[in-house]
Design a protein that fits this description.
- The protein is an alpha/beta fold and 367 residues long.
- Helices cover 40% and strands 16% of the residues.
- The protein has 13 helices and eleven strands.
- α7 packs across α10.
- The structure holds 6-O-phosphono-beta-D-fructofuranose.
- The site of 6-O-phosphono-beta-D-fructofuranose (F6P) has 11 residues, from loops.
Length: 367
């Protein structure tokens, strides 16, 4: 038997950023695969509470195999999470401490052989920084936004698509019955993947995403065209971060200031108001919000999380660090953390999903 199989390993795990379905399934995947590959007696798992906050504060626990029982289907994260970037974390006694130094100290104090960081873009940025600081890091790509560079899918995304699709399906029947326009806000501040997929799957008539700034006249025109053809209801799937063509030329701060001055709480509420004024149709805004990322992971995400987790275990076995796990086509693979950090995977305005949507008559409010 190769000697690396007998090596004892202490593995730290943290979950960081907004929670999403599949975090626990991924943790379970890593732990089970580590036990299988390297022997349960050779593996110790240290759970770090509340993401990088717990790493700074040394909130760590040596976990038992039984801690991972029954978590495949569980939503959220058994470890807890914080979405504040580590630099902005308030450390009550002393806010001027060197947080990176503190994280490294916790890692050393617990004698970790490696640290697994489950999270989105912000998490990958910090993971890369810690990797450059000499820690052995492996990332796992989580987010309902699906905007991590280098992986075709992140875990959590498809569950959120399923939930969003169910929301739109239910909205559809009431929109039809009451001849209303329904504006459904879907999470996604920077990237429109979730709105795009949810919109296509739910049969939305208009999809507004950050990557394709809209023109309100075009949105109204699309609704009127439907009315002219006898369809007296419409569904708009609007990304939380959608913006119009004027706003697209502004800096974020200016855009938010203008919206605040105009008394607009969200883009969805503005769109709903303007649609009602222009078309005369009763228009309602619906915000499923955090329901999109709550609850149990879908079957797809359970499988993906398990595959990602198992891949991370093989990286640990090979002492291959500084990577984040990814899906490329059908293959589970990995990318250098340094290639992923600081990047965002946006929807391509001419990409295949957008083209497909346009081909079936979905409007993006831009033409
Ligand atoms: O990144 C996941 C996400 O759900 C985004 O889609 C959304 O913009 C953001 O988190 C909401 O964050 P919070 O839960 O902090 O309101």
């Amino acid at each position: 038997m190769a000697s690396f199989l007998l090596k004892k390993r202490r593995i730290g795990i943290l979950t960081s950023g907004g929670d999403c379905p599949g975090l626990n399934a991924t943790i379970r995947g890593v732990v089970k695969a580590c036990y299988q590959l390297m022997g349960e007696e050779n593996i110790e798992i240290v759970g770090i509470s509340d993401g990088f906050y717990g790493l700074i504060r040394n909130h760590c626990t040596l976990m038992k195999p039984t801690d991972f029982y029954g978590i495949l289907t569980r939503g959220g994260t058994i470890l807890g999470s914080r979405r504040t970037p580590y630099k902005k974390m308030q450390i009550v006694e002393n806010d001027n401490i060197d947080k990176v130094k503190q994280m490294k100290e916790t890692y050393r104090e617990w004698n970790l052989d490696c640290l697994l960081t489950l999270g989105g873009n912000g998490t990958h940025k910090t993971a890369n920084l810690l990797s450059e600081e000499g820690l052995n890091i492996i990332g796992l790509p989580k987010t309902i936004d699906n905007d991590i560079w280098g992986t075709s899918v992140t875990f959590g995304f498809h569950t959120a698509v399923d939930i969003g699709t169910d929301v739109i399906d239910r909205i559809h029947t009431t929109a039809h019955s009451h001849s209303r326009i329904m504006v459904v806000e879907i999470m996604g501040n920077k990237a429109g993947w979730l709105t795009l997929y949810t919109g296509i799957a739910g049969g939305a008539d208009i999809i507004l995403i950050p990557e394709i700034p809209f023109n309100m006249d075009c949105v109204i025109k699309a609704i009127q065209n439907r009315a002219d053809s006898g369809k007296h209801f419409s569904i708009l799937a609007v990304a939380e971060g959608a913006l119009d063509i004027t706003e697209a030329g502004m800096k974020k701060k200016e855009r938010l200031q203008k919206r605040t001055e105009a008394g607009e709480v969200t883009i969805t509420s503005r769109v709903a108001k303007q649609v009602q004024e222009a078309t005369g149709y009763e228009t309602r805004a619906v915000v499923p919000g955090h329901m999109l990322r709550g609850g149990s992971p879908s079957a797809y995400d359970r499988v993906l999380s398990t595959k990602f987790g198992a891949r991370a275990a093989t990286l640990i076995q090979k002492d291959k660090f500084g990577y984040t796990v990814a899906l490329s086509g059908d293959e589970i693979t990995e990318n250098h953390l340094s290639d992923v950090a600081m990047k965002t995977k946006f929807v391509a305005p001419e990409g295949k999903e957008v083209v497909t949507a346009r081909n079936i008559g979905i409007s993006f409010g831009d033409k």
